């Protein structure tokens, strides 16, 4: 799974990725089934490990406050300096990585994400910039889709390693 950010990810590229990976998106790939996850949580440390992908996630997407895209690097650096959950290699997820979490049915109250994850915020930033000027890709777990959002919009992030 791609872990490096893309600076100009187009909507067409996203559609191809969703179809190739079989990821669900309520508007772009309804036939997607996602991947079978093997989740393990450590709620004391606020972590979820997905043994299917080898990725470790923050259990919650709650940052201290809503952040615009320009503030995300500082937040990631802060979490790494604090060694959140004992690790110092946290980063923003790519759209591909975060869409691997998207479930094809509402599983967490009104959210398209496994209940093992806290769901206080409906969407999360990714590291991927859109080919649309000043926009970034997000995963929207409330609406079961991905989309583009202006980089000045406030939002939350779920870090990965």
Number of strands: 6
Strand arrangement within the widest β-sheet reads: 1-2-3
**What does the radius of gyration come to?**
14 Å
What is the mean pLDDT? 94
Structural class: alpha+beta
End-to-end Cα distance, whole Å, is 13 Å
DSSP helix fraction: 10-25%
Oligomer: single chain
* Helix-strand pattern: HEEEHHEEE
Low-confidence stretches: none
Please tell me what the overall shape is: globular
Major β-sheet annotation:
3 strands, antiparallel
Strand content: 15-25%
- Tally the structural domains: 1
Number of helices: 3
Summarize the structure.
The protein has helices at residues 11-21, 72-81, 95-99, and strands at residues 39-42, 47-50, 55-58, 123-129, 135-140, 145-150. With 161 residues, it is an alpha+beta fold.
Could you characterize the architecture of this molecule?
The protein is α+β, with helices and mostly antiparallel strands and 161 residues long. It contains 3 helices and 6 strands, in the order αβββααβββ. It has one domain. The protein has helices at residues 11-21, 72-81, 95-99, and strands at 39-42, 47-50, 55-58, 123-129, 135-140, 145-150. It starts with 10 loop residues before the first helix and ends in an 11-residue tail after the last strand. It has a 3-stranded antiparallel sheet with strand order 1-2-3, with no helix packed on it. The protein has a 3-stranded antiparallel sheet with strand order 4-5-6.
């Amino acid at each position: 799974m791609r872990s490096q950010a893309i600076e100009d990810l187009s909507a067409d590229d996203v559609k191809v990725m969703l179809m190739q990976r079989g990821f669900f998106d309520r508007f772009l790939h309804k036939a997607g089934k996602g991947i079978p996850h093997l989740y393990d949580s450590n709620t004391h440390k606020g972590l979820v490990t997905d043994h299917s992908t080898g990725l470790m996630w923050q259990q919650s997407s709650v940052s201290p406050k809503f952040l615009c895209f320009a503030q995300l690097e500082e937040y990631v650096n802060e979490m790494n300096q604090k060694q959140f959950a004992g690790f110092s290699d946290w980063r923003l997820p790519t759209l591909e990585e975060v869409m691997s979490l998207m479930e094809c049915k509402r599983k967490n109250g009104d959210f398209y994400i496994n209940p093992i994850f806290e769901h206080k915020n409906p969407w999360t930033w990714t590291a991927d910039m859109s080919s649309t000027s000043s926009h970034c890709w997000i995963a929207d777990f409330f609406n079961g889709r991905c989309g583009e959002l202006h980089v000045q919009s406030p939002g939350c992030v779920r870090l990965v390693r």
